[in-house]
Task: structure prediction
Amino acid sequence: MRWARIATAALVLVGLAYLIAPGNRSGPRTPLPGTAASLQFQNSESCAECHVEVYEEWNSSMHAQAWHDPLVRAPAMSDDFKRKDCIPCHAPRPVFEHGIGQGARVVPRNVNMHEGVDCLACHRMRNGVASTRSGLRAPCRPLHAPELGDVGLCAPCHDQHKTISEEWALTEEAARGIGCNECHMPLVMRSALGGLPARKGRSHRFPGAHDEELMKSAVVLSHQVAAGESGRELVVRLTNTGAAHHVPTDARHRALDLVVTLYDPMGRAQGPVGERSPGQEGGTYRWRFRNPYRTESGMADTRIPARAEVLHRVPLAASIRRATIEVVFKLTPYIPDSEGLLVAHAEVDIPP
Amino acid sequence: MSRLLSWSGPLALGTLWLALLQGGCGPEGDSAPPRETAPHRKSYPAPPEGEWYFRDLLAVGPVPLPAPQASGALFNLLEQWAGRDAIDAGVIIEQLAASTDEAALAQLRAGLRHHDASVRYASCAALGRRREEAVAALLMEALRDERQEIALLALEGIIAQDQSWTLPRVIKCYGMHDNNPHLIVRVTAAARLIDKGIYAGVPLLIKVLKENTPIADEKNREWDRTDRIAWEKEVAIAALSRLATSDFGFHQDGPIPQQVAAIRSIEDWWDRERSRLWERTPPWSDRQLARVIDQIIGGLAAFQLRHVDNARFLLEHLGPPAGERLVEAALGGSFYIRFHSLEVLAALAPAARQAQRSSWAQVLVPLLEDSEPAVRQQAALTVGALGGARAVGELLGHLGDADPGVQRSVALALGRIGSPGARSRLQEQLATVGLLAEVRVALLGALAATGEREAAEQFLAGLDDSEETVRQGTLDTLLAITGDDFGLRAAVAEESGGGPLAEARDRALRALLGPRAP
Result:
């Protein structure tokens, strides 16, 4: 009798425990107290209340423009996001939702899309907000997530056009454990906040292809006039000294053009050598470094790997007195040089 | 009583332990595994790493192929033909097709890759006359030949082989990405598939008929504009006429107004008849086709999003016959497969018959409780699209989901259904504090779609809101609920105001208050 009562009571209690478990409840979900969902941090603006500087940096970044950028919305690109495979990276759900690592990628969200790659995309975890530091206490419930500094956090989106992380993996920087953040989230000073002293933090401006200073630091241009096999020549060297991946990289519509223009004693530019395609009109000689679109069959990937040098020898006729060398970076390949970014430039006087 | 107390302690601890085991007390830890909705997981063929194109997957069938052999009697015969006019290749083609040499396929395969177009043409034509399983796989390599006459010949040859597993590859011919560069090949693929009960190419045929008329579809153009489209129109109207047993009075040399009227009739007929037509499709029993479809479903988990898009396109265009396998995948696949299978199932809803829709919706309801918010977000849209008015009760139960993305999906799904029975719950939810602006707009849109004029006017007033999020959210919600923006996006962007804007608003209002899909 006693065992029967114990068994009955146990069954009742087990049943109660089963009912308590949220996985077995039906009807609307109620956020559990203390979880991220209950904290109502639902967009980047809610982060701005405390992280003013970081928010401002992000707000000026291309991540914040990912949904509105006219280049992305152009008919030949996402066509106003009618090409649905563009949406997951331009308005992603949090990367941490499904974990990061081999084969992990993002799926599209359907709120706050205007915020593009928002704060939550990289920071929101199931039960809080990812932080590089441990032991923090704040209303957003920061959780220590060392993966925030991993290449794997950026790869779900930035490996979609081409595998940057594979390019990076072959570099010295990768061997030394230097990831994306070193260049694309440089250290900056943060103001004192909430009683805490001023400290260093990582910039959320994410300098990249739209950043003049960073682009200029990617390659080094050098030149010399030398005697070649069939006369004098201008030897032009372009070296990828600054990037721990190919230059250019990521989206296949990035292009880097090396343009050499030769001038006669009257200052007249010499006519172009070879056939020219749209976006490659000027200059006497020119070379393009680019990874072609997958529909551009028959074109080679000519980008410059990390630490690699490309060398071109330009024959100099006796009448040539001057040369200009320009290295122009273009966000899309078919625009004229004037709309690109001049990342390196040299004027060369050629002695008679 | 004292006895009861003596064992209540350990039992309470046990209960607490059980509750913790179930994740029932307090927040879930970071290491807590997500709750799985499905009792078991089905594994699908994993897409290979690195560069991986669907055309590679689909170019090779389940049949082992001989390596190309650029030597031998047949190949020599082919080479002799190099440089000659393809149209005169009849004699050599007869000889090539008649050969029973074991190495013949290998040599013809080498011929398909020859630099000379006349050799490729002759090889393709010869292969098309043979009837063996490997031929279809070989011809698929020629589908993307740069010469349209060769690609078209390959397509006709594949269709003549009648191999069910080649269906996805032929569908791919009229697809969006990595598709066939020749419009005539795409149109022919869509036309031939109609004869096999695959009707997803009908919109492409209608689009072709619109070319060079005032209603030409400029949005999301799938080919470069061209005046030379008579051949394509001929193939398109012939296929549509066979299917509908009427040419709708369409004559491409007829007066433009007559052409436009005929095309509008074809569109109406398609909207009316598509579910019934898909119903006529024979069920799939071919095991090789099933294997190819599982490979495509596996592609939904690919890392490269363009491959996911390709897989999604193929599955959508296979139509409702793919539904059962997709439901299985939505319930039992990995996270990515579940998420994207749900997307495809929602897209299949208009073509599926009522019984299929109801049955799929019912089975998918548990996904509204999935541990992954992204899955719940998509499940709401899919269950709503499939279940229609019958899903309203289930959807209403999830309006208060913890994830705002799910909240918005539920509201949009309810908006598409437009059930008056949802009014009070929607009003109640609208009164909730702390809703995201876009969620609030979607809720208001859903309320408007129940036929509440006041709510509809309030919803459209969002177009004038000072917050861009609200203005944009209103347009997005309108598009999601009604499938049209009634020209409002353009009118708002151009700040045209006055007449055009007022007219567009009026059309939107009428659409919101009008009848919704069942």
Notes: Residues 95 and 428 of chain B are 78 Å apart (CA to CA). The two ends of chain B are 60 Å apart (CA to CA). Chain B has 27 helices and no strands. Chain B touches chain A through 60 residues (CB under 8 Å).
